[in-house]
């Protein structure tokens, strides 16, 4: 069981991320996906890096964590988000939990157990149910791209858990940003266009989104997340992520006027049901 103070800290993360995910959807109307994420992590790094120690001896590992768990992951996830409703994308992103279990079984040799295997199958079935809607047939590439981002996020979290004597949450957030911010901006100029035009024409909403993503979603959100994750088993922390689609769907309906179809809600219930089976398994060994 998490301590009450750590439980409250952990539960604040899906709230900050859920609202930020909705705001990011608005920001993608003004900035290319990789460029937006590059600005986000560069600003976050510039905010934090002066106040945290250099994690000497771990910079190489953090570089690879930033490349896999940040640059590649956010590149795929937010490119997918640019083509999907936020309420749909966040359900797909919830595949990060069964992917984490699957990777733990492969990489860490953890035996998932029958309940966790069933939960994974149910979660994937929920995504198939959603993706199989005729109205979403043209969005299948975006759905697959977002799912690939969830898989890459899971890889990044296992990489974080394998750090020996990990730096503090804020230090890890800062140094991941030091590497991933420039990586994303470079990737944007390689694969996207209109970066300078987007800066010149950005509205106060666009700049506000960048500030929220950098300072609230990244500095505060990831600082809290890495702090709690480094001190507890993944299986004890991950249940709070069940709140993420709730906050995202609610904020997307409130701020973006999205109206998810009944089938989206049914699929979401199936996915969340599967995820809840995974994270509430008593013999969980995700670590």
Give the terminus-to-terminus CA distance. Answer: 14 Å
* Helix-strand topology string: HHHHHHHHHHHHH
Helix percentage range: over 70%
Low-confidence stretches: none
Beta-strand residue percentage: under 5%
SS-derived structural category: mainly alpha
Number of strands: 0
Mean pLDDT: 86
How many domains, as an integer?
1
Shape annotation? globular
Radius of gyration: 18 Å
Characterize the quaternary organization of these chains. single chain
Number of helices: 13
Main pleated sheet: none
Describe this structure in words.
- The protein is mainly α.
- It has one domain (4-279).
- The chain is 75% helix and 0% strand.
- It is built from 13 helices and no strands.
- Helix 2 (33-48) runs antiparallel to helix 3 (59-81), helix 2 crosses helix 10 (204-229) and helix 4 (86-93) packs antiparallel against helix 12 (244-255).
- The model has no long low-confidence stretch (mean pLDDT 86).
Task: List the topology elements.
Blueprint: H1 4-27, H2 33-48, H3 59-81, H4 86-93, H5 96-107, H6 113-131, H7 140-161, H8 169-191, H9 195-201, H10 204-229, H11 234-237, H12 244-255, H13 262-279
